[in-house]
């Protein structure tokens, strides 16, 4: 699956730019720069983004459904419209107990 940025200067509906795929996590790049990126992500029910640790803060916003975010083994369930910032250098896992879509924003500058 090709992961191309969303066309600039064109209006779009965020929840419609990414579809659910059975038994998969799908990632669609909205903007990707050396200083950071914005992606839309869809999770089918039961899917997990494996544990990771990012050197940057990550802003997560649920745009459809409900997702479970584990930060340093502390679980929080977010619903449509809710957001959270995963702190830099924090162990985290994102789980789909039911299918959902989210926006992930990482800004890589300002850590100097």
Descriptive notes:
This protein is mostly beta strands and 112 residues long. The chain has one domain (14-107): Jelly Rolls (Sandwich). Helices cover 0% and strands 54% of the residues. It has no helices and 8 strands. Strands 1, 2, 3, 4, 5, 6, 7 and 8 form an 8-stranded antiparallel sheet that branches. A hairpin with a 2-residue loop joins strand 1 (25-33) and strand 2. It is globular. The termini are far apart.
Could you say what the CATH topology is called? Jelly Rolls
Broad structural category: mainly beta
Q: Tell me the helix content.
A: under 10%
Which radius of gyration do the C-alpha atoms yield? 14 Å
CATH superfamily caption: Jelly Rolls
The overall pLDDT, averaged over residues, is: 93
Count of extended strands? 8
- Which regions have little confidence, pLDDT < 50, spanning 5+ residues? none
Give me the strand/helix succession: EEEEEEEE
Percent of residues in β-strands:
over 45%
Describe the main β-sheet briefly: 8 strands, antiparallel
DSSP helical segment count = 0
Shape: globular
Number of domains: 1
